[in-house]
Design a protein that fits this description.
This protein is 5% helix and 59% strand. It has 264 residues and is mainly beta. It is globular.
């Protein structure tokens, strides 16, 4: 899952104290979209993932979404039909933040609703609805941003879990003074009763284990390499997929990914 947002940067343009006039704000509502392509080097993955991600601001708040597609190598293959990467499943999230008070002293606080879900060939993903609050803080120049979200989470088909999710989202632009270098990411922690079948080396457990919470984080580092030849849309970089008791895998996992990103 890729939950990296440029929401903070867009929101910053609309907050009081910035240089955006009312007329300039009206041109910002179309937001921004990007496409990321990764190769996942995780020992249980070895696959390509594409992520389409977008953020759109408007006078009532903002909307964020992403859609992941995993392309799993087809087993076997012949001369007539060689091995191919085919979609093995898809996951998506869409979140809406409501902020009618963008010009007030409480502009850092938004109300949020969110949907999560997906379909994979090898395992199901339960639908989830979330609702709660988002707190936004930033440095004076808005190059460093941070969002903290406290959300009630209802997972269909899952009983007995603590129905809360804590989400942290950060963004640091021109890291270490290097223009075009961006460090961003998210961390999620939520309650969910689920069964684990493999250990953190990918081997099957002698007996299935039960877990009551999940932790995932995906820090990303991007560099706008295209700025050097007149194409700032092009970025290269990667991410680390960090997780604990995520899915059916027990314990801590670290899956490195390399990729490219195009900002439309």
């Amino acid at each position: 899952m890729k939950k990296l947002v440029f929401a903070a940067a867009m929101m910053a343009a609309l907050l009081p104290g910035t240089k955006a006039s009312a007329q300039e704000k009206s041109t910002m509502f179309n937001g921004s979209t990007n496409l990321q392509v990764f190769y996942d080097f995780g020992k249980d993955r070895k696959l390509v993932t594409t992520t389409l991600e977008g953020f759109y601001n408007d006078p009532w708040g903002n909307t964020f979404f992403f859609v992941d597609y995993d392309y799993n190598p087809q087993k076997g293959g012949t001369a007539a039909e060689p091995q191919q990467n085919r979609p093995g499943g898809s996951y998506w999230e869409i979140a809406r933040c409501f902020n009618f008070w963008q010009n007030s002293a409480l502009n850092f606080l938004s109300l949020q609703v969110e949907y999560n879900g997906g379909v994979y060939r090898s395992y199901p993903i339960n639908h989830a609805l979330l609702a709660g609050v988002d707190f936004f803080v930033h440095s004076k120049d808005f190059k460093n941003t941070f969002n903290f979200k406290l959300l009630y989470k209802k997972i269909w088909g899952n009983q007995g879990n603590v129905p809360l999710q804590f989400t942290f989202v950060w963004g640091m632009q021109d890291l270490f003074g290097v223009q075009g270098l961006r460090f961003s990411g998210f961390a999620d922690f939520w309650g969910e009763k689920h069964t684990l079948f493999t250990d953190n080396k990918g081997a099957a457990l002698a007996l299935p284990a039960e877990s009551s919470f999940v932790f995932i984080s995906e820090p990303q580092l991007w560099y706008s390499v295209g700025q050097h030849f007149g194409c700032p849309n092009l970025n290269i970089g990667g991410e680390l997929e960090l997780s604990y008791d995520f899915g059916s895998a027990q314990g801590f996992w670290c899956r490195p990914c390399l990729g490219a990103k195009w900002v439309f």
